[in-house]
């Protein structure tokens, strides 16, 4: 069945449908990973987006029960050049096309994704629709649509829950949490208490955690400004770590500003310089916004990491508190595990803080 991908700038790409065949709209973005399509499509940070894969063949190892980052796909649709017809892997349960149909996820294949990616790089990310028919109203309606501002509210947990262990206790504020963050903490024996994005500081402090982690999530950080005073109060009381959207909110809470990147960083081949340890880490990234480096000077923040290619801010720490953040995903999934040590750094910071409290007492 023939379908059409229509871009906000008027470009039209023709392809073949797979998965669900409903009309769908969203922000059109691209991911440069060769693998990891299942993790990406279920990564809540892609909520509201039409995800284009630049690698020409997608789906060659199928879908399995282990690689979900959330319970269902959160991207609005898939765009690919070619979908594997005969996937093969010992873990697979079904093909990508079968899964997309089962999950009511629209897809379009046989698209020139190289040309499409070049267009996104030239014009920037833009809204798009996948439809059966292009009418006189298609482009007008697309251009008139406003971007969603409630993605975090839609995707955050609605109730507090606990992943209990007898290790250090961390309060995790969920703005669009990936399962791989929970796995990374569980592997280290951390007792995790997960709170919704509208939590107040008192609710967290009443649970007496040893530290706070701000999760990843979708959308513009300026849509979640209600959490900034909560972050400021919590960082005064205990060690704090932010990841991705959590990094941007940590920056905003401490006086920095953010801006929208032209086409974002989405993939797991991004080289990042750790300025503190003087080393290069290859990282997994998925974000469309970044912290403005020029806004750091008048704050108590210090840049700890920077992207090698475009020199955007990839890590921050507070000079006067035990608090830091990174723009990339130390949990990887998919991607290299070069930066997983940051979870250990956070736990070491917590241990030092607890020791200091005991000595002070």
From TrEMBL:
Residues 1-168 are annotated as: CPSase. Gene3D superfamilies: 3.40.50.880, Carbamoyl-phosphate synthase small subunit, N-terminal domain. The keyword Ubl conjugation does not apply. Belongs to the CarA family. It comes from Weissella sagaensis. PANTHER family: CARBAMOYL-PHOSPHATE SYNTHASE SMALL CHAIN, MULTIFUNCTIONAL TRYPTOPHAN BIOSYNTHESIS PROTEIN-RELATED. Residues 1-131 form the Carbamoyl-phosphate synthase small subunit N-terminal domain. This is Carbamoyl phosphate synthase small chain. The active site is at residues 244, 329, 331. Keywords: Amino-acid biosynthesis, Arginine biosynthesis, ATP-binding, Glutamine amidotransferase, Ligase, Nucleotide-binding, Pyrimidine biosynthesis. It catalyses: L-glutamine + H2O = L-glutamate + NH4(+); hydrogencarbonate + L-glutamine + 2 ATP + H2O = carbamoyl phosphate + L-glutamate + 2 ADP + phosphate + 2 H(+). Composed of two chains; the small (or glutamine) chain promotes the hydrolysis of glutamine to ammonia, which is used by the large (or ammonia) chain to synthesize carbamoyl phosphate. Tetramer of heterodimers (alpha,beta)4. It is an enzyme of class 6 (ligase).
